[in-house]
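STRUCTURE:
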């Protein structure tokens, strides 16, 4: 089984601006998937969402989530992280993760702007406490 401690997995997750695909459960039991910007924060993946969004409400009901990140060009690869959400409304943490996501996806020159915009009341930071990691880093091999 793969691990977030694996250097190749960490490199895959942190290189470039791959979007994560977050799987969660709707209130009626349907599986749903939504794109998210994420960062690796220590040994956990982290992202932001609004408390009243479908994602935020669903995670509040059922913290079991999955995040899949893929590479849509050769060598075609993916990492899937299964686990439970740890949710915080602490504005310092919300803004810190929003700023890190801003730096990753929008560039260092806009990181603070993104952090300021999304590090506000009503926003959440969510970390994934990992239960299982599945990785295929070269589907062409």
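SEQUENCE:
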């Amino acid at each position: 089984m793969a691990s977030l401690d694996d250097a190749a997995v960490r490199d895959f997750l942190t290189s470039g601006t791959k979007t994560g695909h977050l799987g969660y459960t709707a209130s009626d039991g349907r599986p749903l998937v939504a794109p998210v910007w994420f960062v690796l924060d220590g040994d956990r993946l982290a992202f932001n969402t609004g408390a009243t969004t479908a994602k935020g409400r669903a995670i509040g009901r059922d913290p079991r989530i999955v995040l899949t990140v893929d590479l849509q060009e050769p060598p075609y690869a993916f990492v899937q992280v299964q686990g439970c959400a740890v949710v915080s409304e602490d504005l310092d943490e919300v803004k810190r993760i929003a700023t890190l996501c801003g730096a990753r996806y929008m560039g260092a020159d806009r990181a603070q702007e993104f952090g300021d915009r999304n590090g506000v009341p009503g926003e959440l930071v969510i970390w994934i406490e990992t239960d299982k990691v599945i990785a295929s880093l070269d589907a062409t091999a």
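REMARK: The longest strand covers residues 123-136.
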